[in-house]
Amino acid sequence: MTGVLDHSSDPEGGPEDLQRYLDASSTLESSRAQVEVLERSESVESFNHQMDLLKRRLTSEPRAFRDLFISDGMKAVAWEFQQPELGPEFVDMLWSMLLRDDDSSTILMRFVWDLPLSMKRKFVRGIDAHLSDRYPMFAGLSVDWPMNNGIPPYIRDSEARTHDFGLVNQGYLGYMELGHTARDVDLFVWLEVLRDKQCEEKPCELGVFLTGKASPRAAARSRSTSRR
User: How far apart are CA 118 and CA 131, in angstroms?
Assistant: First the structure.
């Protein structure tokens, strides 16, 4: 029984640990007392009141907070577009948000859609410069965009065509054969629609035909009639 109450040889205990515990307890009690005093101050009471109101509003109107964050985020996006060129980090973040296919991506697509042509060109230069490694069809896209450059449908290479009778022109969905997702394809098509929106020198396949310009179908009928 000797040594049972002798803690001097205990490597995990000792007077130092006890003293540290007492000091920590004293500090904790002192901190608690200070918190209780500060909680009764006017500024802290006002702060806690505002926090309670925010919590209640977040519970009852979650959409309002989402709209607030989206609004602040769009201000940051607009600021980036005011810079001489879009940087790689911003372009990567912007494209990642577009890929999300949610409310925020829809707002971003509308934002880019409504930009003046000079800003759209800045966007296209950004994805050309910073996303071409991931999307080879973006390489050189900004050259003569929008009138003389775009993303073509996927054309199977000659080596692949020698092994079957599959379609040569796979359309935009053909890019999924290269590992791109359906959402990637949606954005490729969106970029083409964005480009087509700027084409005012000729009737657009997508969009409103210009006044005085015949649609391709009407033009085809007129040629057919003239041959008769």
Answer: 20
Sort strands 169-171 and 154-155 into parallel, antiparallel or unpaired. antiparallel
Burial of 187 (0-12, 13-18, 19+ CB in 10 A): buried
Distances (CA, A) of 20 to 5, 10, 16, 221: 21, 17, 6, 96
169 forms bridges with which residues in the sheet? 155
CA dist., res. 127 & res. 135, Å (int): 9
Q: Residue 192, Cβ neighbours under 10 Å: how many?
A: 18
* The residue to which tokens 């993303």 are assigned: 151
Q: What is the pLDDT of residues 138-152, one digit of tens each?
A: 999 999 999 889 998
Cα 63 vs. chain centroid, distance in angstroms? 19
The residue count of the chain comes to 228
Rg (CA), the chain: 32
pLDDT tens sequence across 99-113: 999 888 998 999 999
> How far, in Å, CA of 192 to CA of 158, rounded?
25
Q: Are 145 and 195 in contact (CB under 8 A)?
A: yes
State pTM to two decimals. Answer: 0.56
Q: Which DSSP symbol is given to 172?
A: G
CA distance 201 to 210: 9
Closest CA to 175 of 161, 186, 162: 186
Average pLDDT, the chain: 76
Instruction: With beta carbons less than 8 A apart as the criterion, state whether 120 and 198 touch.
Output: yes
